[in-house]
Amino acid sequence: MVGEALVRRVRQVPGRVHSVATLMARDGLWRRTSPRGMVVLAQTLAKQAMNPTLIYKIHAANSPNHPAIIWRGTALRYAEVDAHMDALASWLNAHGIAKGDRVMLFMRNRPEYIVVQGATTRAGCGSVNASWRSTPAELEYLLTNSQAKAVFFEASLLPTIDAVRASCPWVLHWVCLDREEINCDSYESIRAHGGGYVIEKGSDEDAAVFIYTSGTTGKPKGAVRKFPRDAVFGALQFIAETPMSCNDVHLVTCPLYHSTAFGFSSFTQLLGGSVVIMDEFKPEAFLKLVEKHRVTTTALVPTMLHRILSLGKDVLGRYDTSTLRVIFTGGAPLPGPLGQAVMDHFGDVLFNFYGATEVGLVTLAKPEDLRREPTTIGRVLPGNEVMLLDDNGNVVPQGQVGELFVRNGTLVEGYHNDTAGTQASMRDGFFSVGDLARCDAQGRYFIEGRKRDMVISGGVNVYPAEVEGALERHPAIAEVAVVGVPDQEWGERVRAFVVVRENSQLTADDLKVWCRTELAGPKVPRDFVFLEALPRNPTGKVLKRELRDLKP
After folding, report:
1. Coil, strand, or helix at residue 328?
2. Phi (first) and psi of residue 179, to 5 degrees
3. Which of 120, 400, 482, 493: disulfide with 526, CB 3.0–4.6 Å?
4. What sign does the dihedral 384-390-393-396 (CA atoms) show?
């Protein structure tokens, strides 16, 4: 195993060198590197401290006054971000939070999310990302599972904090961000702690991010993402495949507790760009911020894209979005007609990625791919190995559907306190989150659904993505989700939940006629249920568990 791993690392070297050289030449990164920045880098490398927050120290030396984070019209510059991370990391270590301990972030989108997460990483701790929408019961579960010793929260969420404090005695510090609270530590006083912070050797080995999966099928699992040296090269390899540059202004739209927002804001700051934070996504506010800040890149889940286009041509035409060079989308299947409509309005700037909290970024479809095959998730990114396996662990032939397994240098360590769940997801060093996919002759991949969502009706495998794709092509349908429900005769039958466009008079009979021209008999839904909206979690994934339980 050691020999095999070494061979893989050696094979990756040319790709890494090419990625770094491409970025340096394309983006002029060398012009942003000052002598002081080179000294900081050399000193840190000499100590073998490869902590990922080193990048903020380098940017603080190279471009101290360049905006790192912009929120509500106020900029926090790289020198300030670095100093705040130092102060918080020093305070954590001085107040009982040691390397390897966990710190929870319980807040909406705001600059402190990036600063606190960076500080915990700098101190060699693990940051636990919790949804600010969590109920007291959900928050208590996350605290219990992670055993976090400190919680940074915003004052508006104090009622939820108060509801769990008594049941979580292991938490040493409750830190309120935006006001003084009784029996809480003050974020302002911590930030005033001041002083430099020496990043210790090995802090990268202890630092981690605990990202809890969305829990669409049950209790969320804590995916533990550490920061091996391969992680930086993996990020650079991805960036080299895109038009991202050191001059970017990136607009954060998704919740920062989610991998998409965290990942793409980190990529931007790795290059030394600026990140603009939306408190919460609203479609017209998105357009306003793009125009105001001359935004160049953003990442949106497909639901957000749908809501933006639903504003209509009159509203869309009021705003100048011509600076947008890249719109990344992922986290849920991209309907082909939606992708085409986005590019028709914004230009060929849409990049559809496939990835997951557990495996990182795996494939990327560029605009030219999406014009040819609108539903593709693209080709495998450098640094990734992908296998499509059947239920017996055999590689499926080209064009056939199999479970997608991934191996790369950024796989999560596993699920926290869930050895069985980790082992069930692994096969020979490859990891699967249960997605089904196929690959065409050009090396383009297509997601066919989740393994647990596959419908077996009368012995025929029905992949929900295929049925959903057929229905999405109907001009009167805005959104659709397909599930399997129990059936005495067929074992399962296909049920489609449909959201129609405004003023549509579409009926179930109309849809049956449509589907019979698009799909083979067993794949045609037997039931159509019309809804005003599909149930989704905060990151845009359809909650198919709720749909299965819904009585039509």
Report:
1. strand
2. -170, 165
3. 493
4. negative
Q: Which two tokens stand for residue 57?
A: 């120290």
What's the pTM? 0.85
Nearest to 80 by CA among 103, 52, 59: 59
Tokens representing 18?
Answer: 């090419």
In this structure, what token pair is assigned to residue 136?
Answer: 């007291």
Coil, helix or strand at residue 144: helix
In the chain, the N- to C-terminal Cα span, in Å, equals: 53
Contact predicate 415/221, CB 8 Å: yes
Q: What is the amino acid identity at position 534?
A: L
SS3 state of residue 301 = coil
Residues 454-549, CATH architecture: 2-Layer Sandwich (3.30)
3-state secondary structure of 27: helix
Residues 90/66, Cβ–Cβ less than 8 Å? no
Cα four-point dihedral sign 368, 374, 377, 379:
negative
Residue 455 has φ and ψ, to the nearest 5°, of -100, 130
Cα 69 from chain centroid (whole Å): 19
Residue 389 CB coordination number (10 Å):
16
- The CATH code of domain 33-58+78-212 reads 3.40.50.12780
Under a CB-based contact definition with an 8 Å cutoff, are residues 493 and 487 in contact? yes
Main-chain dihedrals φ then ψ at residue 204, nearest 5 degrees: -70, -25
Which regions of the chain carry the CATH code 3.30.300.30? Answer: 454-549
Q: Yes or no: say if 18 and 48 are a contact pair by the CB < 8 Å rule.
A: no
Task: For residues 96 and 376, give the distance between their C-alpha atoms in angstroms, rounded to a whole number.
Answer: 49
Q: 105 forms bridges with which residues in the sheet?
A: 129, 152
Backbone angles phi, psi at 483, to 5 degrees: -135, 170
In 3D space, the residue among 467, 461, 484 whose CA is nearest the CA of residue 544 turns out to be: 484
Task: Mark out the alpha helices in 243-356 (DSSP H runs).
Answer: 259-270, 283-293, 302-309, 313-316, 336-346
Q: Residue 283: which of 295, 300, 270, 261 has the closest Cα? A: 300
Residue by residue, pLDDT tens for the chain (552 residues) are: 444 544 444 454 455 555 555 555 566 565 666 677 666 666 655 554 567 888 899 899 999 999 999 999 999 999 999 999 999 999 999 999 999 999 999 999 999 999 999 999 999 999 999 989 888 998 999 999 999 999 999 999 999 999 999 999 999 999 999 988 888 999 999 988 777 777 776 666 666 777 777 554 456 778 777 765 556 777 888 999 999 999 999 999 999 998 899 899 999 999 999 999 999 999 999 999 999 999 999 999 988 999 999 999 999 999 999 999 999 999 888 889 999 999 999 999 999 999 988 888 999 999 999 999 999 999 999 989 999 999 899 999 999 999 999 998 877 777 887 888 888 888 889 999 889 999 999 999 999 888 888 888 877 788 898 899 999 999 999 999 999 998 877 888 899 999 999 888 999 999 999 999 888 888 999 999 999 999 988 777 888 889 988 877
CB contact at 8 A, 457 and 490: yes
Range(s) of the chain covered by CATH 3.40.50.12780: 33-58+78-212
Closest CA to 252 of 216, 220, 214, 285: 285
